[in-house]
Amino acid sequence: MNQTPARIEPDAETHYHFVTGRLAEAALREVVGEIATRITLRYSIGVMPITVAALMTPRWLLRHLSVPPEADAVIVPGYLSEHRDELTSAIGLPVHCGPRDLRQLPEFFGSRGVPDDVMASHDIRIIAEINHAPRLSREALLERAKQLRADGADVIDIGCDPATRWVGIGDAFAALTDAGIVTSVDTFDAWEAAQACRRGASLVLSVNASNRDAAADWGVEVVAIPDTPDDLNSLDATVDSLTRRGVPLRLDPILEPIGMGFTASLVRYVETRKRYPDLEMMMGIGNLTELTDVDSAGINLLLLAICQELSIGSVLTTEVINWARSSVRECDLARRLVHYSIHHATPPKRLDESLVMLRDPKLRAYSAEVLERLASEVRDHNYRIFAQDERLHLISAGLHLSDPDPFRIFAELMERPQAANVDAGHAFYLGFEMAKAMTALTLGKQYEQDQALNWGYLTRPEQSHRIARKPSRRGRDDTTET
Prior knowledge:
Layout: E1 15-20, H1 25-38, E2 42-47, H2 58-64, E3 73-76, H3 84-91, E4 95-97, H4 105-108, E5 125-130, H5 138-151, E6 155-159, H6 169-178, E7 183-186, H7 190-198, E8 203-207, E9 221-224, H8 232-244, E10 249-251, H9 262-275, E11 280-284, H10 286-289, H11 296-309, E12 314-318, H12 327-343, H13 368-377, E13 384-388, E14 391-396, E15 399-403, H14 406-414, H15 424-443
């Protein structure tokens, strides 16, 4: 992911000397000038005799760097982060490695950093259901259970088939137990529940008037539910029956889908907590994520927040529908975020961005003046791609193409003299990068050439796709630089 390095806390007494290359000078002056309007910032800017700052090496920088006597600290580009100690020792002043993208400098000089323990703790357990488990082979069942556990599930719920009794249920639970997997069984069939509990299940979902008399024989905890979702009195009767028989239990008043009494069902959770302030509770959140045409992450976080506030200690989720295919991971992140938020009485904003996936938290655009100056100063034939203001920009020596449509940009490029340098590899590279840029424009994401788009915790890091060019007249290789 494109992450901002550890922030520094500027003070009015410190003079910061920023180091950059020629092409980034105008953009750096603009960004630092904006920072200086927000905070008291004493600074100077040193422009090195190099076009692209990313190409600076520590040895080269030390040969060309001239630090003004009033400077107290030096800010170098983030590409030099692994050489910070070496530079600090050689320069004799504290050296800070800023972000690789200078547009992130406002965050770099922002407020106090996020505490390290934001995502460290949680107290909600995730029960992840495997639906239609009898239809899976033993190997597939074990593999799926292990994957859900790796994603953050605490208990693997084995869903039975209501239409057919699962004769081999005992052997399946024995195999899961032998693999060290904590399980629950999802069935109203008292025989199936008994067989599963005898072979390792630690929880039965669910119990109401139809099967509560058998629950005392299972020897495990059960989830008590109402006979019908809107009948809390029937839940009271089941709680009373189970309590008298000494059966450990947790309560689930049943979350209803939107259009079928969703808000009323939330009210029932509040009412149930009032009636039973000391009993464990569970919420089956899959009823909402699986039955709503929307990406599941936001729904999961909101429902986990409700559970945290009501001290509902477990949630039941599943990953059947494609838009909820990552619900277990989402719930694991969400439970940590809401735990910190509620226990520290702070909104879950600017704490962790793992669940910000579709759009980016913030967009950082260059001004039109900076782009024009960049286009006028570029002297090499490497291609630089920018995506902002609903347009794509392709910049190279003597070239600045801009259009909302990448196909039109490429067609126009092919009519220019620069097209002589575009071989099949570069055409593929440009197509790949402009496709990413177009995706960023469509969704409202930050595009950085040669870097992966930020999809939150789903981000797949990219290796550099820079392509070697033919040797130039000076006999050295050029590469496609960002």
